[in-house]
Design a protein that fits this description.
The chain folds into two domains: 40-132, Double Stranded RNA Binding Domain (2-Layer Sandwich), CATH 3.30.160; 135-213, Arc Repressor Mutant, subunit A (Orthogonal Bundle), CATH 1.10.10. The chain contains seven helices and six strands. It has helices spanning 4-48, 84-92, 107-117, 135-144, 155-161, 168-176, 203-213, and strands spanning 54-59, 66-71, 75-80, 99-101, 153-154, 189-190.
Length: 217
């Protein structure tokens, strides 16, 4: 039968191991947080010196974290939570561009998104970088920016405003591939019969956004 002393020693040993493990976890978390803060300071300094071509940052929202990426021309990407890592890799793949995380470089759009979800803003003032969008896709997305808060249009209506009311499928494809959702409010486009239609960021988010804006009850 094990002695009480042995039990106490075993218990103490297990407690010490748990304490060491907890301390290591705390140190790792602290190091990671410190690394992120250092990276952010470097990014902000680089942005202030004009050394960044694309700055990115994240903002917490009721529908999950969003990544925003801003070029010298304006907002070029809004990515949903599950897309963040892949989006950063995608942006960084072009070795001719200097891509870096920067709170300073993304402050304006992050603040506007926070105001939108906080009920303090119904439209966005931040510039959008349209340079990677062309033809009918660009027309569709530009028309989409004109849909007011709390209102919806059908795919046919948006296609018509972009120049071809019969190109509903092409309009739907353009909206599904929208690189800057929320700011270019593709969630405000629905099916002719009243159904939600598709949404690149998941239908539950589209529904949540329309309910928040009062367009869906």
């Amino acid at each position: 039968m094990p002695s009480r002393t042995g039990n106490r020693e075993a218990g103490a040993g297990a407690g010490d191991a748990d304490a060491v493990a907890a301390a290591l976890r705390a140190m790792t978390a602290g190091a990671a947080a410190g690394s992120r803060r250092a990276a952010s300071r470097i990014g902000d300094a680089a942005d202030a010196a004009g050394l960044i071509d694309i700055a990115y940052g994240t903002v917490d929202t009721p529908i999950g974290a969003l990544l925003v990426a801003v070029s010298r021309r304006g907002l070029m990407r809004v990515a949903f939570e599950e897309e963040i890592d892949d989006t950063v890799i995608e942006l960084s793949d072009d070795t001719s561009l200097r891509v870096m995380g920067s709170a300073r470089g993304t402050d304006e759009v992050r603040r506007e998104i926070e105001d939108y979800f906080g009920g303090r803003r119904r439209s966005f003032d931040v510039a959008v970088d349209w340079t990677e969008l062309h033809g009918f896709t660009r027309k569709v997305l530009r028309e989409t920016t004109r849909i007011p808060f709390g209102m919806v249009l059908t795919y046919r209506q948006v296609a018509g405003r972009a120049g071809n009311s019969r190109a509903m499928r092409a309009a739907g494809n353009a909206l599904h591939a929208n690189p800057v959702p929320i700011v270019v409010p593709c969630h405000r486009v629905i099916r002719t019969g009243g159904g939600l239609g598709g949404y690149g960021g998941r239908l539950d988010r589209k529904e949540a956004l329309l309910r928040m804006e009062g367009a869906l009850r």
